[in-house]
Amino acid sequence: MIGAVIAMQSEADILLSEMKVERCLTVSGKKVCVGKAYGKDVAVCVCGVGKVNAALGTQLLVSKFDAEKLLNFGVAGGLNDKTALCGVYQIAFAVQFDFDLTQLNGTKIGTLDEYTENYLALNLLKLPYETRSLGTSDRFNDSPADYALLTEELKADIRDMEGAAVVQAAYAAKLPVYSVKAISDVAGSGSTTEQFLVNKDKALQNLKAALPAIFEQL
């Protein structure tokens, strides 16, 4: 069973529209639809926005739906000229950039207490999409301080609000985890909120076009 954990209904719909849905139910406040997509058994959890929601949704798919591998996809923000607006990228490494134990133990920003490195590696598929690094936090903003941290210190290419939390939960469950993101806004090109609203649908359509290749590899 593939467990797809997705923040927003609009993101999940690009997969659900291609699924033969057998049943939908609400478990622990999360909507889960189970069925087949591209010949594979899939459980799709619409987890909600943010890291706690993402971790809860991931664990739900593991504990209640016996997910054997985990997939996170959706729209995200680009941070540099290596991320084209509405482009699709596979995530190779992810870090929680709002997690900071530096003052306590001197570790790099984003290093979880149970790990020694701040970036966690994801599994990769043989896809015609370039790989990028992802920074995750519970913030959607145009903060110069966040931008500097992400680009100068962490060298991240993309930011979102769920991806690295899915990876942390997958590590805890000892399951392979994959992530593919489409760029809805790029930092430094005006308001990210305005860009998101204008470009979200196009980015999702580009991501939907990638789904057959993604599921062929899973």
Strand-helix topology:
Layout lengths: L1 E5 L2 H8 L2 E9 L2 E8 L2 E7 L4 H15 L3 E10 L9 E9 L5 H4 L14 E2 L9 E6 L7 H10 L4 E3 L2 H11 L3 E10 L5 H26 L1
Parallel strand pairs: 1-4, 1-5, 5-10, 6-8, 8-9
Antiparallel strand pairs: 2-3, 3-4, 5-9, 6-7, 6-10
Helix pairs in contact: 1-6, 2-5
What does this structure look like?
This protein has 218 residues and is of the alpha/beta class. It has a single domain, classed as Nucleoside phosphorylase domain (Rossmann fold), CATH 3.40.50.1580. The protein is built from 6 helices and 10 strands, in the order βαβββαββαββαβαβα. Strands 5-9-8-6-10 form a 5-stranded mixed β-barrel. Strand 3 (30-37) and strand 4 form a beta hairpin. Helix 1 (9-16) packs parallel to helix 6 (192-217) and helix 2 (51-65) runs parallel beside helix 5 (163-173). The longest helix has 26 residues, at 192-217.
